[in-house]
Amino acid sequence: MENYLLDWANLLLRWVHVITAIAWVGSSFYFVFLDSSLTPPVDEDLKKQGVSGELWAVHGGGFYHPVKFAVSPPRLPGHLHWFYWESYSTWLSGFALFTVSYLWSASTYLIDKSRMDWAPAEAIAVALAFLAVFWLLYDGVCRLFGQKKHGDAIVGGLVLVLVCVAAWLACHWFAGRAAFLLVGAMMATAMSANVFFWIIPGQRTVVAQIKAGQPVDPVHGKRGKQRSVHNTYFTLPVLFAMLSGHYSFTWSHPQNWLVLIVMMLAGAAIRQFFVLRHGYKLGRNSHPLPYAMVGVALVVAVVIGLRPTSVAINNVAVGASTESATGKNDYKSVQAVLAQRCIQCHGAQVQMKNLRLDLADSVRQHAQAIYQQAVVQKLMPMNNATQMTDAERALIGRWYLAGGATQ
Fold first, then answer.
1. Closest by CA position to 378, among listed 255, 253, 263
2. Residues paired with residue 53 on neighbouring β-strands, in sequence order
3. Helix, strand or coil for residue 79?
4. Which one of 133, 143, 256, 275 is separated from 60 by 20 to 30 angstroms, measured CA to CA?
5. Strand partners, 351
6. What whole-number percentage of the chain has pLDDT above 70?
7. Alpha carbon distance 94, 238 (integer Å)
8. Rounded CA gap, 81 and 106, in Å?
């Protein structure tokens, strides 16, 4: 019953998380596009009001004319929309999902004893520290260098170093899938913290100054803009880290930390292309295509680097013809391996994913899935907690290729 309820919690939280993330990312992308597409106002009345840029757009059968004020509008409107619940809801649902999926069963999903053999409480504490420490270091870098000459370049370089170090540590300390997700959650936490600690407080200060009839300090807008720009470059790397959990060939690679870094760098480069393309159309910057080409080249390099190779199973390559399959491959031998390595989670007492491997009919019914999970991807047992050997995986492979599902 506990596993059933956890599955429902996972599904519902994942649903909420995706919905709120779409809302947050969508609004973020829109405002980056809007800022990059604004042109100086033509109307003299708009200039007198302090408008620094305007945009004409058509969407959904209607025409829109958003304008941006350089520092503050002449007066506050009766209704002012704030963009922050999208961020907060995304982080809260994401952290709840991370808790249910990984922290709740840390010994199964978070810990890989071949990397670090620590107690669940220790692993959970270190994982949570990743979220807090990265934010503190990133925020410190922004405070120290963000307003200096070439500050954006300095901050970008130092943040890249921080992310690389965090990726290396996470992939050497935690199970591969958990490590990728943790790095993504770490960066997403910084994104939401930017909204909570900088963007929204700065906007509230500006609103309070306008209401009080005081001069508006433009530094609040500049800082908020800076953190908002950081968030947009974090977005694609975070999305890759989150989605990669469904594709074991990324996080199960021996150099998985390098795979993660290269793919996140590719995402940032591709995002740079989309940010600059609007300015290119207005003649503000050169064509950003090289950034997209770099991003695509990095992705292609990873695809080539992770390409599957033939795995020999008693002179029979995985995926090859089964006619020459030889060796000990009877069901009795496979059953002995399953009993030692798999029954703990897929037996009469515990039936993870409603799968039983102590019954011959069930094993034959799911033979292809067993072959894919245990032999091809080496995904199961989870984090190889029961220490299944390569020889045992090869035995299962020979059995399947020799027609184990029909024996």
1. 253
2. 68
3. coil
4. 275
5. 346
6. 93
7. 12
8. 40
Q: What's at 153, amino acid-wise?
A: A
Q: Tens digit of pLDDT for each residue in 347-388? A: 877 777 778 888 888 888 888 888 888 887 777 887 777 888
Chain length of the chain:
407
Instruction: Compute the distance between CA of residue 43 and CA of residue 45 in angstroms, rounded to an integer.
Output: 5
Residue 156 to residues 71, 150, 160, 310: CA-CA distances in angstroms? 26, 10, 6, 40
Question: pLDDT digit string (tens) for 259-293?
Answer: 999 999 999 999 999 999 989 989 999 999 999 99
Residue 332: exposure state from Cβ atoms within 10 A (0-12, 13-18, ≥19): exposed
CA distance 386 to 328: 22
Q: What are phi and psi of 307, to 5 degrees?
A: -60, 140
For 252-263, letters b (16+ CB in 10 Å) and e give bbeebbbbbbbb
For every residue of 304-372, which 3-state class applies, written as one string? HHCCCCCCECCCCECCCCCCCCCCCCCHHHHHHHHHHHCCCCECCCCEHHHCCCCCHHHHHHCHHHHHH
Classified as helix, coil or strand, 63 is strand
- The dihedral through the CA atoms of 382, 384, 385, 386 has a sign that is positive
Q: Which residue has the higher pLDDT, 161 or 400?
A: 161
382 and 113 in contact (C-beta within 8 Å)?
Answer: no
Q: Distance between CA atoms of 274 and 258, rounded to whole angstroms?
A: 25
Distance of CA 39 to the CA centre of its chain: 34
Strand, coil or helix: 57: strand
**Pair of tokens at residue 188:** 């997403």
User: What pairs with residue 57 in β-bridges?
Assistant: 64
For residue 39, the cross-strand partners are 54
DSSP 167-184: HHHHHHHS-HHHHHHHHH
Contacts of 222 (CB under 8 A, 6+ apart): none
Helix %, strand %, coil % of the chain (to 5): 65, 5, 30
Contact 124, 104 (CB under 8 A): no
User: 328: pLDDT confidence band, cut at 50, 70 and 90?
Assistant: low
Question: pLDDT band for position 33 (50/70/90)?
Answer: very high
Phi/psi for 65 (5° steps) reads -140, 70
Distance CA 168, CA 113 (A): 17
